[in-house]
Predict the 3D structure of the following.
Amino acid sequence: MNVDLNNVNISLESVSDLLNGLYAQIITFRGFASVFVMLFIDLCALFILLKSGSEKKLCHKKWRKEFGYIAVVEGGRVIPVETSEILLGRHRSADIQFPDLSVSRYHAVLTYSDGVFLLEDLNSKSGTYLNGKKIHSAVINVDDEIRLGAVVFQIKRIKETNNGGRKGKGKRKA
């Protein structure tokens, strides 16, 4: 590839004029104010990002301190519970998905508040059962048997491994 520099009409004077024009624009109050506002917005965005990361870590610490490591155990699968509200169902948007057709798309919700787990049926067709009894809403304990349609699972305490991870695989689809 050959470049003919004879046809390029960029002179040192034109570059200097361009830079002087930019400098003059920045020096004016309007230019200075706009640069200052842009820097301020960037710094605020950076602060928000840093703060949200530390808040998320703090939230996880508080969650772990409050009741340790909890998981939904279905068959051989272990699904860690890491939020205070979990939608159970067949739909893609469910926090824990059960691909069984006997499970409604939005079957039930599991909530944790004030040290108590509450399981609520969301008017599913096949019902929600706790230890063999059909429920609409009930407080559940660790090791209770929960059935959504034909899917049976339990809420279990899981142990932390030495490397900071959890025992079992944390698959979200059950």
Summary: Residues 43 and 115 are 39 Å apart (CA to CA). Confidence is low (pLDDT under 50) at residues 161-172. The radius of gyration is 29 Å.
